[in-house]
Amino acid sequence: MKLSVVILNWNAAQDTAACVRAVQAWDFPGGVGRPEVWVVDNGSGPPGIAPIRREFPEVHAIESPVNRGFAGGSNLGIRAALDGGSEAVLLLNNDASVDAPSVAALLATLGSDPSIGVIGPTLWHREQCISVGGRNIARHANTHLRPRVPPAAPLDVDYVPGTVALVRRGVFDRVVLLDEDFFFGGEMADLCRRARAAGFRSVTEPRARASHNLDRSARDRQTLHIYYIVRNRFLFVRKHVPRGRGWLYARWTARAALTALAAAARGRFARVRAVAHGVVDGLGGRVGAQPDRVRRDPPRRP
What we know:
- It is a single chain.
- By secondary structure, this protein is an alpha/beta fold.
- The chain has helices at 13-24, 50-55, 69-83, 100-112, 169-175, 187-197, 218-221, 224-240, 245-265, 269-284, 291-295; strands spanning 3-9, 36-42, 60-64, 88-92, 96-98, 116-125, 128-131, 155-156, 164-168, 201-212.
- Strands 1, 2, 3, 4, 5, 6, 7, 8, 9 and 10 form a 10-stranded mixed beta sheet that branches.
- Helix 8 runs antiparallel to helix 9 (245-265) and helix 9 (245-265) packs antiparallel against helix 10.
- The longest helix has 21 residues, at 245-265.
- The protein is globular, with a radius of gyration of 19 Å.
- Mean pLDDT is 92; it is low at 297-302.
């Protein structure tokens, strides 16, 4: 099974370089060749991925003039990998790490069952398991499954997080690519939902383990991340719940109001504003990138 790895870069060339080095160190048993690596620069400022090109001339580099988000940036790499004949594509965050035995386990399970379309490892931050897959984001607030004891056998889930996700070529051939309307967050839940409708399962393989460094994105989690979580849940409901969506709109609006009140009580007014924008934009059907409006700080009092 020919494998390609797609890694996004956005103003983090050092992290991306470290991620590429780790991938190039993979040594699969049985004479399996190394995967092709596609690095997509998502509209970074200087130096962009020039350092990546210099250090890794063998890596395929794609540069987007604008930030296309996780969905749009990943799609650039996915299309190129599929055009190059890849049979599976591994989406890998540049702040995540996964070793060769874990990737081999993902490939083995994917190859053993044609009904599996998307497969991922258990995700860990330091010594804490932070996800063994996700639940339906239209119905659940805390969608990442976090059992005290990880499963002992492959587990069917509603979606595999895009942090580390191995996708069979057939999924992209039959249900197209990631939906760029989501921009960031929710696109993997949407892809897995569409894959399931086409007959593919989404699975977590507990023999595979990956680390995700949440510290690197801690600042954005207070504003941009919460905005996209709130907004994209409404977009997901609009897209995948044809009947009875009104009560889900009401439910998620009420929950967002509670989140905003809790943030206001702590003086986190940027978070309040991000949540409010998320509700308004979600109900209004606004899609795509909104970083400048969400991040804009209110005027400070003298």
